[in-house]
From TrEMBL:
A GO CC annotation given for this chain: mitochondrion
Signal peptide stretch: none
The keyword Metal-binding appears for this protein: no
Species this chain originates from: Aspergillus heteromorphus CBS 117.55
Protein name in UniProt: Enoyl-CoA hydratase/isomerase family protein
Amino acid sequence: MSAYTYQYFNVTFPQDHQYVAHVEINRPDKLNAFFEAMWLELAAIFNQLSSDPSVRSIVLTGAGDRAFTAGLDVKAASEGLLSDSDTTLDPARKSVIMRRHIISFQSCISTIEKCEKPVIVALHGIALGLAIDISVAADVRVCSSDVRFAVKEVDIGLAADIGTLTRLPKVVGNFGWVKEVSLTARPFGAQEAERVGFVSRVYGTKGEAVKGALELAGLMASKSPVAVQGTKELLNYSRDHTVEEGLRYTTVWNSAMVQTKDVSDALLSGIQKRKATFAKL
C-alpha cells in the first residue's frame, strides 16, 4: 500500500478490519484547516480508493484532539484565491476565473460522494464550514460528544458553495433547521446533530467514535462488494430523481448485477451457517 503516500493525509489499512481504508486529515497544528493542495490530495485519495479492489469501505477522520477540521484556511485563501491583487482584469473575467476555481473545489469534495465505496466520517472537536461540506458528501456521519459544528460561511461574507447548501437539506430533511444554522452560522453540538439526523451515532470520545466508525466500516466490508457498491449508487441516484426514475434505474442496474456469484454465495453461507466470503471487485 506504499502507493498511498500523501503530504497532508495519512492513509492506513487497519489489520483488524479487512478491506477497510482509514483516511486521516493530517494538519493538526493548523486545526486540519484546508488550503488548495489539500483539496487536490483529498480528490486524488478518494479517486484512488474508489477503484482499489482491496478496499470495500472507508473511514475519514481528523488528526489531533482539537479538530476534525476548522474548515478553510482563511489566511492562505486571502493570500491566494480570494486576493484582489490582480487589478488588470475586469469583473466579468475575474468571475470566470473564480467560477472555474469553485467548480474545481466542488469537484474535489464530490469525489467522496462519487467514490464507489461507502464512506463513514467520524467527526470530533471543531468541525466548521468545510467540515460540513465534507461530511454531507459522505454516506454516514458519526461524532464524539465534544464536537462543535457550524455552517460558518456567512461569518466570512460568503454563501457556502462547496456542497452544504445543496446536500444538507437532503441529509436532515428539515429545511427550516438547515436555513436557521446556515443563515446564522450558530454552533450546534452532537445531541442536536443526532436529533435532526445529521449524525446517526454519538460516542463519548474521539477514540470511541473512530473505533465505532471502523467497526461499522468493517461490517459493510464483510458484505458482498457488488451489493454494497450497488446500494450506494442506487440510493444516491434515487435521492435526486423521482420514484419512477429510481425504480427504472434499479431495474437496469440489477439486470446485470443480480447475475453475480455473490448471491448464491450469500445464500449458501446462510444455509450452511458460515461466514460468507466474496471475491474482490
